[in-house]
Design brief:
The chain is an all-alpha fold. The chain is built from eleven helices and two strands; from the N terminus they run ααααααββααααα. It is extended.
Length: 268
């Protein structure tokens, strides 16, 4: 794509109106209903051949297909309204790897954006918070596919910024297969943020106990004995304080709501 065409494309993207939170929630609900309908239609299809109530099954199937169509339409609307999220990340990777085609990076980010919209749950908060991780993963996936199109000898070529002396092997951008999936990473970041806020709402003593015990300040978690030493009490007393602080943390209403969203519902 020529530079003039890319400029025109970017101009059109930023001309798209942003969604209000109310509109985003409405689209999110349609997407969720579409996902649920797709699962239900799959189960319903298996029953059609052996069912005596063909007419009723057909009506149910049409209702579910309509819900799926609405979900697909909502996914497209949500993606289109948030496509501007792709460009800051695309520019970052373009600066880091100037030998790559910018539009290819953008396309990878767009694929990640669509994935984010397809899996979006409005209960988890703003779409943009969730989407950036999927966009980043989409760009990384595109960069990996670009690598596979290169001769093997080219994987060790140095790319990056000459001025900042940040050259590194192109092969280093290959994502570790053991790293979490983009949706899992988004969940982890989202939950971590909410838990940190809940900890800050604890009283000073409980907050200090949680931070010390689980290493939230310096990344080094302490044993009950070590925690007691810092607090100036016995191991047993420290254990009691940790248990009490965790109990109060679990009682935070915002965390109870998160549990309803992220934990699987037990079938009774």
């Amino acid at each position: 794509m020529r530079e003039s065409e890319l400029d025109a494309y970017i101009k059109d993207v930023y001309a798209t109106e942003l969604l209000t939170r109310k509109e985003e929630i409405a689209l999110g609900k349609q997407i969720s209903r579409g996902r649920r309908a797709k699962r239900q239609l799959s189960a319903l299809t298996k029953k059609i051949l052996g069912s005596a109530k063909i007419l009723g099954v057909a009506k149910d199937g049409q209702f579910l297909r309509n819900a799926i169509t609405c979900g697909i339409s909502a996914t497209k609307q949500l993606s289109a309204a948030n496509i501007r999220l792709v460009f800051p990340l695309a520019k970052y990777y373009r600066r880091k790897f100037p030998e790559t085609e910018f539009f290819d990076i953008v396309q990878g980010g767009n694929c990640g954006l669509v994935l984010a919209a397809q899996k979006f749950s409005w209960r988890r908060g703003k779409f943009s918070t969730w989407a950036v991780w999927c966009i980043r993963a989409g760009i990384q996936s595109e960069l990996r596919s670009m690598i596979t199109r290169l001769p093997t000898v080219s994987l060790d070529i140095l790319v990056g910024s000459e001025k900042r002396n940040q050259k590194e092997p192109l092969s280093r951008i290959i994502e570790d297969k053991k790293s979490p999936k983009p949706d899992e990473e988004a969940d982890r970041r989202f939950l971590g943020q909410r838990v940190r806020k809940a900890i800050l709402r604890l009283n000073k003593i409980d907050r200090e106990v949680i931070i010390l015990r689980f290493g939230l300040g310096n990344g080094k978690d302490l044993t009950p004995k070590e925690t007691g030493k810092v607090l100036g009490c016995s191991r047993k007393r420290a254990w009691v304080k940790v248990g009490r602080a965790l109990k109060r943390l679990r009682q935070d209403k915002s965390l109870e709501k998160l549990a309803e969203i992220f934990l699987p519902v037990k079938k009774g």
